[in-house]
Write a structure and sequence with these properties.
- This protein has 272 residues and is mainly alpha-helical.
- It contains 6 helices and 3 strands.
- Strands 1-2-3 form a 3-stranded antiparallel β-sheet, with no helix packed on it.
- β1 and β2 form a beta hairpin.
- The chain is elongated.
Length: 272
């Protein structure tokens, strides 16, 4: 662990800063190695490929730290590659996380469902015994108030039912747009059947072409060697004729040279 005050690059002994280590043969495995670092309530552990490397109950990772990975080889040059880096939490982690513990703010739809209906919010008259109404005017006033409250409640229920009806119709229209009709399904079925028929026809054509190519290849392999042999034997230049031409040309040159020497020897000589 490092709080930013230690420079690993210029440190004289980086190995002395380690609080845990283990030997692991990581070369030539043919697969990536998995390193699991676990911080529990009273334990810190490191596992490599399912085997525990080291653990300690005296180590606890502080909060608000960043993760960093460094790899180096002492003698043989190695290449270290990181394919995935995943952080998770479990119920055993005893760390205060105020941001995560705060419940998310309710959405607008949840707020609408959490709000009590309007007819429940309306102030309802309290139940009063009939003996307290001494006059008909008081009885009429209480009856009027109760009927008015009932009318408001019925109106609120009607509004809620109308709203639910509108939402249901909107959902029905959305579902109707997303779901294909029977005619569209029949048309798609017809297209699929036509495609399958076309594919079967092309398969027959491909089979016939394959048979033609196979026959042509067999005939070619049978007739080509004999034809090439015939061409070589019948149309190749004869070596005897070639040698005769060379010998005749040499003899012609030799005869020309002899005649030239004789004429030169028989000709008059000039002296100065």
């Amino acid at each position: 662990m490092n709080d930013g005050s230690t420079d690993y690059r210029n440190h004289h002994a980086v190995d002395s800063l380690a609080f845990g280590h283990c030997d692991y043969a990581y070369r030539n495995l043919g697969r990536p190695s998995q390193i699991l670092v676990r911080q529990e309530a009273n334990k810190f552990a490191v596992d490599v490929d399912g085997r525990q490397c080291f653990s300690s109950d005296k180590i606890k990772l502080p909060s608000d730290y960043s993760f960093g990975i460094t790899a180096a080889s002492a003698d043989t040059p190695d290449t270290f590659e990181i394919y995935k880096f995943v952080t998770t939490t479990s119920s055993s982690v005893a760390r205060e996380e105020p941001r995560r513990n705060q419940p998310p703010p309710p959405s607008q739809q949840e707020q609408q469902y959490q709000q009590p209906p309007a007819y429940q919010q309306a102030q309802q008259p309290a139940d009063i015994p009939a003996s307290q109404f001494a006059s008909q005017a008081a009885q009429f006033e209480d009856l009027h108030n109760r009927l008015q409250t009932m009318a408001h409640a019925i109106e609120n229920v009607q509004q809620a039912v109308s709203k639910l009806t509108g939402d249901s119709e909107g959902r029905h229209r959305e579902i109707s747009r997303n779901v294909m009709s029977a005619d569209q399904l029949n048309a798609m079925d017809s297209r699929i059947q036509g495609i399958e028929k076309t594919v079967r026809d092309y398969q027959k054509e491909f089979s016939s072409l394959q048979a033609i190519f196979k026959d042509s290849h067999g005939n070619l392999m049978q007739s080509l060697p004999a034809h090439m042999t015939d061409i070589i034997h019948t149309r190749s230049p004869r070596i005897g004729l070639f040698l005769f031409i060379i010998v005749a040309f040499q003899a012609l040159l030799a005869g020309s040279y002899i005649i030239y020497k004789r004429r030169r020897a028989q000709g008059p000589k000039k002296y100065l």
